[in-house]
Amino acid sequence: MKPNQQSLTSSPPLPRQEVEQMHAYTAPLEGRRDFLRLDFNENTIGPSPSVIAALKAIPDSHLSIYPEYDGLREAVVDHCSSDMCTVSLKPSQVGLFNGVDAAIHATFHAYGDRGNRLLTTTPTFGYYTPCAAMQGMDIIAIPYEGETFEFPLKKIRTALTEHKPKLLLICNPNNPTGTILNAETILQLAVEAPETLIVVDELYEAFCGSSLLPLVDFDSIPNILLLRSLSKTAGLASLRIGFAIGNADVIEKISRVTGPYDINSFAVTAAFAALKDKAFIDSYVAEVLHARDWINKQLISSGTRYHLGGGNYFLIWPKRKPDEIEAALKEEGILVRNMTGKALIDNSLRVSIGTITQMKTFWAAFSKHEHLEK
Ligand SMILES: Cc1ncc(COP(=O)(O)O)c(C=O)c1O
After folding, report:
1. Range 290-313 burial, b when 16+ CB lie within 10 A, else e
2. Mutate to test the pocket of ligand 1, among 175, 204, 205, 228 (most ligand atoms within 8 A of CB)
3. How far apart are CA 289 and CA 52, in angstroms?
4. pLDDT, tens digit, for every residue of 69-112?
5. 155-192: per-residue pLDDT in tens?
6. In a domain, 21, yes or no
7. How far is the CA of 232 from the centre of ligand 1 (A)?
8. What is the domain count for the chain?
């Protein structure tokens, strides 16, 4: 029997109401490979040579086999053990994800229900709110305070008590303001709000050294979840691998909403090699911190408005229109992120910090187009 043509041309079935109302989260990530990429805070030099060697050594025959994850949680624990002063981490307290983006998505999927609340700050990393929206959660976003973007601690505390949110998302240090909330304060918030899962996105903690990991005992404080990634320090952004670290029960719940093979074999092999070569990560972070000091000095002496916090990035407000400077830098082969239209940071550019040589290239081009005196 022939299918009824009329039913073939009618509209497709509707998705869930929340999905129908939202837009896909997209970032301008195409056509970037030939540029000096100071727009997405990635590692700017590539991964450790031992990662490259491990990837090249993957036998062809492994391509047809589903990925294997044995030992990767233990490798994360070993990697973190030098950070753990008081309490030790267990493999069951580590969740493996296809990038921290996937860990964030899974956390909302597991914990965020229709009508629940997400409490967070603004401006912050852009993926939290679409994840909340797709679950039908209500979003309370409290602005950073003043010219130096201080963490709105008092208001967050009040909102925790008044709204009893299911999730509190703290990006620490915050992307894009670099704001750091000290680890002891976050621990205190967790004790004060036991019904809220406090997710601390520590993607950039290596650049400020303010992690909760050395302090938190996830058995006695089960409502803290830390997110770590190999994208920004280890140079594995393309492979997509990230970790959630927290109470074993929370990790197990979050892992329930992921597919069995969401992380591919290349990412697993690269992660083992990257986690083992801590010296490479440490030396890259040291180079970025050195470059951060250098660019900070140039920014101070230029008199340009800027804001530099705890991450591998800073905000700068050019005197010329941000669109023009962004385009002029692109002509010179340099990408930066234009923050025009974003609350509190309107008209700024976010610039990632790479090596000192890369910062010198950026600064020479920026100074030329801004007509800054040498
Ligand atoms: C604060 C923050 N969290 C998470 C992510 C995503 O990290 P991943 O590459 O591990 O998915 C980013 C990427 O820019 C980020 O800035």
Report:
1. ebbeebeebbeebebebbbbbbbb
2. 175
3. 25
4. 999 999 999 999 876 655 689 999 999 999 999 999 999 999 99
5. 999 999 999 999 999 999 999 999 999 999 999 999 99
6. no
7. 8
8. 2
